[in-house]
Specification:
Elements lengths: L10 E4 L7 H8 L3 E6 L3 H4 L2 H11 L3 E5 L8 H14 L3 E6 L1 H14 L7 H4 L11 E5 L11 E6 L4 E6 L7 E4 L9 H20 L7 H23 L4 H14 L13 H12 L5 H16 L4 H12 L8 H18 L16 H8 L15 H13 L1
Parallel strand pairs: 1-8, 2-3, 2-4, 4-5, 5-8
Antiparallel strand pairs: 6-7
Helix pairs in contact: 1-3, 4-5, 7-8, 7-9, 7-11, 8-9, 8-12, 10-11, 10-14, 11-13, 11-15, 12-13, 14-15
Length: 395
């Protein structure tokens, strides 16, 4: 087990009706002016936005609204939010939505806390934020784990680059998680969310070479097994509270570093997927992950077949072939791929509309234009990335 630091300061308020507490919670912290940041029409249509703003009004808290966040949140939207926060003297950013809204809120908080600095420079590592406005979240989609993570991912539309950076200031001050708010999430987005939750732990589990982490392994395996079961239930019974609650809590735990404690890792599939949805903004992040992971897994598994075989046995209850662990490893990859298909998720990038001639450009961007390789159980440079993209095109 490697040395590690585990830091999860986010206050979690979980359960039925909890979103109605938001006014009292914000008042506890003494904030005076809130930016209420949200996505599209659903927040208005369901009455959630009115309920949130009404709860703030009831406590005498001022607010301004900024809606319109899209999937794969954009730099231009974040810059609008930064300008609005500075004009209105906002002291707190409240995200009402899923991971895209929360990431956009985090980027706004970074920019408003560092006026005069181009916020994109934080994502290119040309600058580091000196501080940020505090952020809170009311979660409406179980997927990204951004409600409890240090990560933030933004797409720069001008150059088609989707980049992320981590900061302790990105961990929300509080997150309100009411599983009932996810009942109306579409089957497709529920599937995307289930994949994303699983991938946050799968990438930690498979993404490094640290071997002696038995407790962390068991936590990760338990989460993966439970999410697969809950995802199947939510797929056929969208208003099953226990399944929705399991997915929501698992999403937070999957990306708050619990399932990687003591392990070094690189999320290679996430990095490669960022180039997909950066260049093709219509691709949902979870769909991109499901389309890439089986090809990535088949490409790298020979470097550590025992790890993939352990996953197959412990998560999917497959029989272990001790004489040929690779056979068990490949069977585990296949059953995962079949599970993604059962959720109506893609397992190749061709069906996502990716053009074969873009493979070189995606790989080049994923190397940060030749300045990096991706470490892992098998290191990936441009040639290796191109081969995985080709496999995912032909799958």
């Amino acid at each position: 087990m490697n040395n590690f630091e585990f830091y999860t300061p986010t206050r979690m308020i979980f359960g039925r009706g909890t979103h109605l507490q938001v006014g009292k919670i914000v008042k506890e912290y003494g904030f005076k002016k809130v930016l209420v940041h949200f996505g599209g029409a659903s927040a208005k249509k369901t009455g959630l936005l009115d309920a949130v703003c009404g709860a703030l009004e009831a406590e005498g808290i001022g607010y301004v609204q900024l809606g319109g966040v899209q999937a794969n949140p954009t730099l231009s939207m974040a810059k609008k939010g930064i300008e609005l926060c500075l004009e209105e003297k906002v002291d707190f950013v409240l995200a009402v939505g899923g991971g895209s809204v929360i990431d956009s809120a985090k980027c706004i908080a970074d920019g408003a806390g560092n006026p005069g600095v181009d916020v994109w420079k934080f994502f290119t590592k040309e600058a580091a934020p000196a501080g940020a406005l505090p952020v809170g979240a009311i979660l409406t989609l179980s997927a990204s784990g951004s409600e409890m993570s240090a990560s933030c991912v933004i797409t720069n539309e001008e150059n088609g680059l989707k980049r992320g950076f981590n900061s302790t200031t990105h961990r929300p001050l509080f997150s309100i998680c009411n599983p009932e708010l996810t009942y109306t999430v579409s089957r497709f987005q529920t599937g995307c969310g289930t994949v994303d939750i699983m991938m946050h732990t799968l990438e930690r589990y498979m993404g490094g070479t640290t071997k002696e982490t038995p407790l962390t392994d068991r936590i990760a395996e338990g989460l993966l097994k439970t999410v697969a079961e809950a995802g199947a239930v939510a797929d056929r019974d969208p208003e099953n509270y226990e399944a929705r609650a399991t997915l929501m809590w698992a999403g937070s735990l999957s990306h708050n570093d619990l399932t990687s404690a003591g392990r070094a890792f690189m999320m290679q599939v996430h990095q490669m997927e960022h180039e997909l949805s950066g260049m093709y903004p219509q691709i949902a992040h979870g769909a991109g992950l499901s389309a890439l992971w089986p090809s990535w897994a088949r490409y790298v598994c020979a470097a550590w077949p025992e790890r993939f075989a352990q996953y197959a046995v412990r998560v999917w209850n497959l029989e272990m072939n001790f004489e040929n662990p690779m056979e068990t490893a490949l069977a585990g990859i296949k059953v995962t791929e079949d599970y993604f298909k059962s959720l109506n998720m893609p397992t190749n990038i061709r069906d996502l509309g990716v053009e074969p001639e873009k493979i070189d450009e995606m790989a080049e961007k994923c190397t940060n234009f030749g300045t990096r390789t991706l470490p892992g159980i098998r290191e990936l440079g441009k040639a290796e990335m191109m081969e995985i993209y080709r496999m995912a095109m032909e799958a």
